[in-house]
Amino acid sequence: QLQLVESGGGLVQPGGSLRLSCAASGSTLDYYAIGWFRQAPGKERETVSCISSRGDSTYYADSVKGRFTISRENAKNTVYLQMNSLKPEDTAVYYCNAPPYWGQGTQVTVSS
Questions:
Q1: Nearest to 62 by CA among 42, 50, 52, 48
Q2: What confidence score (pLDDT) does residue 85 get?
Q3: Full 3-state SS string of 22-87
Q4: Average model confidence (pLDDT) for the chain?
Q5: CA 14 to CA 51: how far, in whole Å?
Q6: What are the tens digits of pLDDT across the range 19-67?
Q7: Residue 103 and residue 42 in contact, taking contact as beta carbons nearer than 8 Å
Q8: Local structure of residue 6 (DSSP, 8 states)
Q9: Can you tell me the distance from the alpha carbon of 56 to that of 63, in angstroms, rounded to the nearest whole number?
Q10: Phi, psi (rounded to 5 degrees) for 16
């Protein structure tokens, strides 16, 4: 069974950067499309970005386009989300998903 663990969250000032990692164990990520999602307090979980199994196709929500970059390193069984120019509205718990598996989430807080 696939297990996913997110890391890299934290507190950052507006305009700062973070890189989230989603590390898999128990199985290979090679055949999974991976998604990053986020959920802010009082809001529904939303899709942030997705990447195909081979990494040749990506999707970004309009709210993060041009600021976030998704990538994967199958040799390390890991998917990344590079987040630049962070805004307070990016504050949320970020989850990675390899359907039907979810990680436990990592908190990102953007605040001065």
A1: 48
A2: 98
A3: EEEECCCCCCCCEEEEEECCCCCCEEEEEECCCCCCEEECCCCCCCEEEEEEHHHCEEEEEECCCC
A4: 96
A5: 26
A6: 999 999 999 999 999 999 999 999 999 999 999 999 999 999 999 999 9
A7: no
A8: E
A9: 21
A10: -80, -175
The whole-angstrom separation of Cα 46 and Cα 57 is 19
Q: What does the alpha-carbon distance between residue 85 and residue 78 come to, in Å, rounded to a whole number?
A: 23
| CB atoms closer than 10 angstroms to residue 6 | 22
Closest by CA to 29, choosing from 59, 68, 70, 83, is 70
Record the tokens describing residue 91, joined without a space.
């504050």
Give the residue carrying structure tokens 């990016």.
Answer: 90
Q: How confident is the model at residue 87 (pLDDT cuts 50, 70, 90)?
A: very high
Tell me the residue length of the chain. 112
